[in-house]
Amino acid sequence: MAKVGKHMDVVPEIYDDGKEAKGVEKRVLIGPNDGAPTFIMRHFTVKDGGFSPYHSHPWEHEVYILKGKGFLRTNEDKKPFEAGDYVFVPPNEIHQFVNDSDETLEFICVIPKSGI
């Protein structure tokens, strides 16, 4: 069945231990609970000065930056991004999303269902 929803109606998972992650909220907008057979769509909010874990995994990330700016940290360098940009992170690449600005960063991240 088709579905329409508002991202703010989804209860977020909070990642904020100050070491591995800081100021991050993740909302699963579309996933297995909705009957989605292939992909999971997530909405992330990263507060100013916040960051996601520096990690890798065997699935890709496909990201669209909605608001704010920051950079993608990889084992090679820092790749800046801003609202309107897209980001592709290949499988098994070490990465971290960093908000180095004084405004909130928001992005959509799509992963395969195997990424849960």
* Helix and strand run: EEEEEEEEE
How are the strands of the biggest sheet laid out side by side? 1-2-3-9-4-7
Low-confidence stretches: none
Task: Compute the number of strand runs.
Answer: 9
Structural features, described:
A 6-stranded antiparallel β-sheet has the order 1-2-3-9-4-7, with no helix packed on it. A 3-stranded antiparallel β-sheet has the order 6-5-8, with no helix packed on it. It contains no helices and 9 strands. The chain has a single domain, classed as Jelly Rolls, CATH 2.60.120.10. It starts with 12 loop residues before the first strand and ends with a strand. By secondary structure, it is mainly beta.
Write the layout of secondary structure elements.
Layout: E1 13-15, E2 22-30, E3 39-51, E4 61-67, E5 69-74, E6 78-82, E7 86-89, E8 95-98, E9 105-112
Antiparallel strand pairs: 1-2, 2-3, 3-9, 4-7, 4-9, 5-6, 5-8
Compact summary:
This protein has no helices and nine strands.
Question: Which short descriptors sum up this protein?
Answer:
116 residues, mainly beta, Jelly Rolls, three-stranded antiparallel β-sheet, 9 strands, 0% helix, 51% strand, globular
